[in-house]
Specification:
By secondary structure, the protein is mainly α. It has 2 helices and no strands. The N and C termini lie far apart (209 Å). Pfam families: ATP-synt_B.
Amino acid sequence: MIDGTILLAVEEGGGLFDLDATLPVMAIQFLILAAVLNQIFYKPLGNAIDERSNYILSNTSEARERLAKAEQLAVQYEEELASARKASQSVIAQAQDEASQTAAGKIAQAQQAAQAKREQAQQEIDRQKQDALAALEGQVDNLSRQILDKLLRA
């Protein structure tokens, strides 16, 4: 039995690190596995991530450009709206002035026409008054003659 224990001790002699041909074979296998995984899985995944990143960057830059353009259009439309409001206010003011002038002119014409009719009516009244006074004078003369005749006869 002594011989058996000695033989076992000699066969186990390597210990924790055994530097035989398995270490380089394992290293080569690991490098081959890493290269295969890189080629099959990591490279397409990296390409997909890069494409997605580029897509996001391009969409972000396009969105910024569109936002800037929209803000520029909003400012432009606000300026156009402000100028249109000013123009419409000036048109309204001008129309109100014209309407006021037209109304004032028509009122003046109506007042002149009313004044002319009033003067015409006054002239007609004066003429009728003169006619009535003339008729009354004739009647007064006639009555005074009749009174005189009656008084002289009596």
